[in-house]
């Protein structure tokens, strides 16, 4: 089990609020000379480096970094403005051979790589918290658990592309890395005591090769539109695809989040109704908030020619040019369809799901971290030709499962495949 939080904080007091950096709020590095000094400091520092990045999600197009925070022993905290420089490759070079400490690394790795920073080794305090069995793994919750301090998150959703950045935002950004290395050290001891440190190291090593989800250039990105399950007919799906592409082009040109051009729900409404003239563009139902309603009204009016043009283009498509209701992939069908299509596979899945639930309880690790659910489904839907432990282990490794995961989960797979051939 995870370490009792009472061992990490004074039980006689509430969590201590972390509301100001111990060394004050550093200035933003946005000049060549300032960057040169920062590089010299990082090279002379000791131990791991805490790293974080702030994006302008919901405001700007894409997921680029608008602020990078670094903290290292002997250096203190550095706030780097990546917009002021062509890239930050020099920082990556200065930290060569240094372990990076991040929280929820998959959120930051893609935007850091975009500016030339990529870790060769790392420690993820969010993933580490999952493996340690913590019930909540947000940064503030993990800091409370291990260090007895609480962290305010009031500026987590602000527009970080704003310049100059307000002082309260910079204070918040600096606090995100203030105790990250101390947190890493406490968590490492906890993982070691639970016998899970090697598991964590395998997971962290895999994260160094993480590239992120498909971007907007993915030809099927439009299928991730929220609410598209409401569309059943192929021509309505085609309308959504064309409207999505128009919205994406507008958002890219304006450098704003696509949702600020037109909310997903309005896009789906247009695809469903396919209005033929400007007087019919108004949606059938109002948006859930005043701000989204205002954006929907403004977006419909400002780009009404573009929306109507996309809908007209769809009317001219031949039947064989319409998209399929669901994307054809190489993976198994949805689990709800297994019983009808392959009762044996359905029985295997039911057995392994029960086994994983029991295993999760025993080792105090979430089921989804024991092995990727997609990997489990693939191995059970179409087991490899060699269906023994060696064959299933090799197939799981090919799917990216780590050694510790295979050691725990492959016996469950073998048993299910043997019992339900």
From TrEMBL:
| InterPro entries assigned | 3'-5'_exonuclease_dom (IPR002562), Exo_C (IPR041605), HRDC-like_sf (IPR010997), HRDC_dom (IPR002121), HRDC_dom_sf (IPR044876), RNase_D-like (IPR051086), RNaseH-like_sf (IPR012337), RNaseH_sf (IPR036397)
In terms of domain of life, where is this protein from? Bacteria
Give the protein's recorded name. Ribonuclease D
Q: Where is this region: Disordered?
A: 1-24, 273-296, 319-341
Question: Record's PANTHER family?
Answer: RIBONUCLEASE D
Task: Tell me the ranges covered by the HRDC domain, including all copies.
Answer: 233-321
Q: Give the Basic and acidic residues compositional bias ranges.
A: 284-296
Q: Name one GO molecular function term.
A: nucleic acid binding
What CDD domains would the database entry show?
A: RNaseD_exo (cd06142)
Single Gene Ontology BP annotation: nucleobase-containing compound metabolic process
Pfam families in the cross-refs: DNA_pol_A_exo1 (PF01612), DNA_pol_A_exoN (PF18305), HRDC (PF00570)
């Amino acid at each position: 089990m995870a370490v009792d939080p009472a061992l990490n904080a004074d039980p006689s007091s509430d969590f201590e609020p972390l509301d100001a950096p111990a060394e004050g709020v550093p200035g933003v590095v946005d000049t060549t000379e300032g960057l040169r000094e920062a590089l010299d400091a990082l090279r002379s520092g000791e131990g791991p480096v805490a790293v974080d990045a702030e994006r302008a999600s919901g405001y700007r197009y894409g997921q680029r970094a608008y602020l990078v925070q670094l903290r290292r022993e002997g250096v203190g905290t550095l706030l780097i403005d990546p917009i002021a420089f062509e890239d930050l490759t020099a920082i990556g070079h200065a930290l060569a051979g240094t372990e990076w400490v991040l929280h929820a690394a998959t959120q930051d790795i893609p935007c850091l790589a975009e500016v030339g920073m990529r870790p060769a080794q790392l420690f993820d305090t969010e993933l580490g918290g999952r493996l340690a069995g913590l019930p909540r793994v947000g940064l503030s919750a993990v800091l409370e658990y291990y260090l007895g301090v609480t962290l305010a998150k009031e500026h987590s959703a602000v527009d970080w592309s704003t310049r100059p950045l307000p002082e309260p935002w910079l204070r918040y950004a600096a606090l995100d890395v203030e105790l990250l290395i101390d947190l890493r050290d406490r968590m490492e001891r906890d993982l070691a005591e639970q016998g899970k440190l090697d598991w964590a190291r395998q997971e962290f090593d895999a994260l160094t090769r993480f590239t992120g989800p498909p971007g907007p250039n993915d030809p099927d990105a439009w299928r991730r539109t929220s609410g598209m399950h409401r569309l059943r007919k192929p021509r309505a799906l085609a309308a959504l695809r064309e409207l999505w592409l128009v919205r994406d082009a507008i958002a890219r040109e304006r450098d704003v989040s696509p949702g600020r051009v037109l909310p997903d729900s309005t896009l789906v409404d247009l695809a469903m109704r396919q209005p033929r003239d400007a007087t019919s563009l108004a949606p059938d139902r109002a948006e859930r908030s005043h701000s989204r309603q205002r954006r929907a009204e403004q977006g419909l009016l400002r780009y009404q020619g573009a929306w109507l043009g996309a809908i007209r283009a769809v009317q001219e498509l031949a039947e064989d040019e319409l998209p399929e209701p669901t994307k054809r992939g190489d993976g198994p069908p949805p689990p709800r369809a297994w019983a009808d299509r392959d009762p044996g596979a359905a029985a295997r899945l039911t057995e392994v799901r029960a086994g994983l639930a029991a295993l999760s309880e025993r080792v105090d690790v979430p089921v989804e971290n024991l092995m990727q659910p997609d990997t489990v489904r693939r191995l059970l839907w179409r087991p490899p030709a060699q269906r023994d432990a060696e064959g299933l282990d090799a197939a799981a490794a090919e799917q990216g499962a780590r050694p510790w995961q295979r050691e725990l989960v492959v016996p469950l797979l073998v048993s299910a495949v043997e019992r339900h051939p």
